[in-house]
Amino acid sequence: MRVVKLRTEDDFDGWRAAARTLAAARVLPSDIIWQVGAQPTDLFATEEVAIGGTPPFTVSKQFLSLASRVALHSDPERFTLLYTLLLRVLDCPSILCDRADPQVRRIEGLSLTIRRDIHKMRAYVRFREVLEGKMTRYVAWFEPEHHILRANAAFFVGRFTNMRWSILTPRGTIHWDGAVLSEGPPAHRADIPCRDPTEIVWKSYYAAIFNPARLMTGAMLKEMPKKYWKNMPETALVPDLIAGARKRELRMIERAHAIPNVMHRTDTVDLLRAEAASCRRCPLWRPATQIIFGEGPPNADIMVVGEQPGNQEDKTGCVFVGPAGQVFDRALIAAGIDRSQLYVTNAVKHFKFELRGKQRIHARPNVTEIDACRWWIDQERALVRPKLIIAMGATAARSLLEHPVRIADCRGSAIALPDGTPCWITVHPSALLRLPDGVDMEAEFDRYVTDLRLAVRSLDR
């Protein structure tokens, strides 16, 4: 038996180096013991693995990304599972695409669990203020299910760069002093204060913004299980807010009826646009010039959702004015649709790009960025209340449906969103600018026009 000694429970780099050496020698998974820290090893282990000195080989980024997440799982078999899959990938790289394979399915399940645990930590950490002499430190308690603390550290450093903070967990602690990130031993919940002065203000704010008209208790509990409630001060208000939701909703309806509808929505959309200008929900605001918000009548029957702003939109501050916007305008004219009657927006509000020399090249938003920006789309939909939504491109469809889809499978018919609003999905106009050689561009443009025309005519029916 061979022993691999890993420094920590999340020592992916150590596993990777050892796995490279062992895989080059084609050592069987059953002949390896993966030992973390000083935990006892097998009595029959005879040889500690010497890392290095092996010829290099490559595996796909897909496998490395998957393995780096699964290494954070608390499953004691994770390192053996990953090594077994590595040997299979070396023999058959396409095995990762086989979703019916039991081992691939199990490992992807572990990966999905890690994604959820990382998201929960980012969403449900609540800091409390602690005085340290004349300095202030913000301390939070969280109980992760897996070894995600180090993997999440960079997110909190980027989000709270100018704060001095500590996150305490039963698996370890991280501390940021404004310049240096350090680690510490596991902690206990009693190590953080019970409350701080800002919680009173936060609870008042949370109660004020609680919207009973959007309350879906089942969805809320699915996204925010009760096991996280004890760490969040605002959750103490939730039962009473739910109990009084119907009364508050009726009061909101009465107030809305007392105000001219179009004027009220105009003011509200403008306020939302002003609020969005300071959005920091994801890191895309840093390199972008400005946020590009939706434009159009605040009571439009049709909302068109694109993917994200482009270079021209980022410079001008207007939605759909670049090359893709010109294709969009030409298609609207061909379909007999008046753009001034549409509310046009994007699923992601900031321009994401890569620098190539002096050029800014469009980069596809990732799932985290799409999910972070969904909050703004939801607010726009709630205010405009469109009767029909047209989603252009995979990013827009992903944002509205909350799961990935293939455009080719969805074109030509409506999909009902959770609130019942019909959503027609078509290609993004920028896709028509990137058609490969040999594709009939005019035919694809006509098909795009047909998609828009069918969607609008469905509203008439």
TrEMBL record:
GO terms for molecular function: 4 iron, 4 sulfur cluster binding; deaminated base DNA N-glycosylase activity; metal ion binding. One of its GO terms (biological process) is DNA repair. The keyword Disulfide bond does not apply. The keyword Iron applies. Coiled coil: none annotated. It comes from the Bacteria. Signal peptide: none annotated. SMART domains: UDG, UreE_C. Keywords: 4Fe-4S, DNA damage, DNA repair, Hydrolase, Iron, Iron-sulfur, Metal-binding, Plasmid. Residues 293-453 form the Uracil-DNA glycosylase-like domain. Belongs to the uracil-DNA glycosylase (UDG) superfamily. Type 4 (UDGa) family. PANTHER family: TYPE-4 URACIL-DNA GLYCOSYLASE (PTHR33693:SF9), TYPE-5 URACIL-DNA GLYCOSYLASE (PTHR33693). This is Type-4 uracil-DNA glycosylase.
